[in-house]
Amino acid sequence: MKIVLSLNRQECLYDYIDMGIKTYVLGCQYSFHCSHIFTLEEIKDITEKYSQCHFYVAVNALYDQHVIEDVETFIEALSLLSIKGILFQDFGVLQIVKEHQYDFDMMYAPETLNTNACTLNVLQSQGITSAFLSRVIPLEEQVTIQKEVHMPLMLQVHGIEYIAASKRALLSNYQEASGIDFDKSIDGALVLQAKNTDYQFQVYEDEMGTHIFSKTRLYMLDLLNHLCDFDYLYIETLMMTEEEAIEIASLYSDALKSHENGTYNRYVKDYMGLLYRLKTPLDRGFLFDQTVYKLEDMRKMDNEKRESNH
């Protein structure tokens, strides 16, 4: 197991490396939501200064045709740097890499699609070399998939969770229609509450579109015994303060070292106590949920479809 961190600030790298973390995801101008956007020059500088580390770049949007040539040029520039891999979901990105025979680990990272082993094993034959498992399936299914897939897998273990996204400028459109002035940026992310629940979402808009994430943080600090066979454990630092990101990275790094030396079971309650002291909203996400289709719900959906067609 290796911890993978979405890098929120270059200045934090020294602290993260000192913890023993050596694998990072870098955001760029072509990333679809990321904790920080690094320029190509900054990526070049980071990879040269920290050659002992492994860096992935998130080229993970679904790109319009008029953008794809610029994306291809950017990937060509990445191929000249010490980049280990690319996180992607647009198969145009994979095709570019295959056509030019670039040497990247191509990590397939759609938000919700990687939910079964059969599909991933087929995609491996198409040039995918690693994958990011979906967060919307139970832990039991994630573990089963890991055992049946023949390539490295990454699993998110901490941080806010993706809910939905759109290429459209939904907040700007609402602002124009309503006449209400508000901050649309990630720094002033709106908080929405789902009807008839206590669940809250954070919404922001940038040049790539509108992004919706949970306000709570998924956490798996006390579940490392179930994750022994996963190659990468991902910590999402999006919407974390610098201090929170460092504290979380330190906790998981220490817990992983403890797991490796056989003392994890003895100290896991201490780690959890330190996590609770951060006073951030925590959630198990879908880890212990099961997908259940109730017959009455299916009938209701069918009736609604029939009525809408009349």
Model description:
With 310 residues, the protein is α/β, with parallel strands linked by helices. It has a single domain (2-157, 218-309), classed as Alpha-Beta Barrel (TIM Barrel). It is built from 10 helices and 12 strands. The protein has helices at residues 13-18, 40-49, 65-79, 91-100, 117-124, 139-148, 170-178, 242-260, 264-277, 295-309; strands at residues 2-6, 23-26, 54-58, 85-88, 105-108, 130-132, 153-166, 190-193, 200-206, 209-219, 232-235, 282-283. The protein has an 8-stranded parallel barrel with strand order 1-2-3-4-5-6-7-11. Helix 3 crosses helix 4 (91-100) and helix 8 packs antiparallel against helix 9 (264-277). The mean pLDDT is 90.
Q: Tell me the domain tally.
A: 1
Q: Tell me the series of helices and strands, N- to C-terminal.
A: EHEHEHEHEHEHEHEEEEHHEH
Approximately what portion of the residues adopt beta-strand conformation? 15-25%
Q: Can you tell me the overall shape? A: globular
Q: Supply the helix-strand structural class.
A: alpha/beta
Low-pLDDT runs of 5+ residues are: none
How many E strands?
12
Order of neighbouring strands in the sheet with most strands: 1-2-3-4-5-6-7-11
The fourth-level CATH homologous superfamily is: Aldolase class I
What is the CATH third-level topology name?
Answer: TIM Barrel
Number of helices: 10
Query: What is the C-level CATH assignment?
Result: Alpha Beta
**Percent helix:** 25-40%
Distance between the termini: 55 Å
Calculate Rg over CA atoms.
20 Å
